[in-house]
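Help needed: design a sequence for this.
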């Protein structure tokens, strides 16, 4: 079946040069954006209940922008001044650049991975005498603690925010040709908001193996998968699929 409509389960891009907008024009599609999940910050009291003392750590592992925002939010609420010699281990360059919102970048010790947490683990291994804090959501990927334990470094997780299902009751349905998801929580949101959802001819595009497993476990079919060697990004995967589908 041909593809005319796509719903991406993320906020609409703020950048005019987003590849989604290019894809929409190039293939004459209607692409909508809607957040299926959102983040809610934990309160300072909840952090204390976790027995987390920020001053005990010499390094912070950052895997997302949310982790950065909520670490500095809680630090301010707890009146903790982050020391100038704190070391920051960032999973990607984009995450490291986002740190500039809170710190003077050039004056800090920042270590950057290429893209995955496995990449970053090489940097962590080189500084294995540090005491690491890992700020995260309540949906921390199981592979991350496993890697840190394997490195035999001293570390602790701090749940600073939660991933929550968004209310989509204002949507009459999700009858799009393609639905795009980036996390297992997005799949949870789909089924909680639309418990009678039947996939039928709707194609589901998935980013990441973990999300793909969650999709299949929910009894849904994965039609488009990224990243792959041929389609390293979601927009590229969508373009390749739509071109083939719309040829018929």
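Sure. Designed sequence:
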């Amino acid at each position: 079946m041909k593809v005319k409509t796509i719903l991406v389960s993320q906020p609409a891009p703020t950048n005019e040069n987003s590849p989604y907008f290019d894809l929409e024009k190039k293939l004459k599609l209607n692409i909508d954006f809607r957040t299926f999940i959102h983040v809610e910050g934990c309160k300072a009291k909840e952090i204390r209940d976790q027995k987390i003392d920020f001053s005990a750590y010499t390094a912070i592992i950052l895997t997302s922008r949310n982790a950065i925002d909520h670490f500095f939010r809680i630090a301010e609420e707890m009146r903790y001044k982050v020391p100038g010699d704190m070391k920051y281990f960032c999973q990607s360059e984009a995450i490291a650049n986002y740190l500039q919102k809170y710190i003077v970048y050039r004056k800090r010790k920042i270590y950057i991975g290429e893209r995955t947490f496995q990449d970053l683990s090489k940097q962590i291994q080189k500084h294995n005498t540090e005491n690491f804090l890992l700020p995260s959501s309540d949906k921390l990927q199981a592979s991350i603690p496993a890697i840190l334990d394997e490195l035999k470094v001293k570390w602790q997780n701090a749940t600073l925010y939660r991933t929550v299902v968004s209310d989509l009751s204002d949507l009459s349905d999700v009858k799009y040709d393609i639905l795009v998801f980036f996390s297992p929580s997005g799949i949870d949101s789909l089924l909680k908001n639309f418990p009678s959802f039947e996939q039928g001819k709707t194609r589901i595009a998935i980013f990441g193996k973990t999300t793909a497993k969650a999709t299949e476990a929910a009894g849904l079919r994965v039609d488009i998968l990224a990243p792959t060697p041929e389609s390293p990004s979601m927009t590229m995967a969508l373009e390749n699929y739509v071109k083939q589908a719309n040829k018929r």
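The mean pLDDT is 93.
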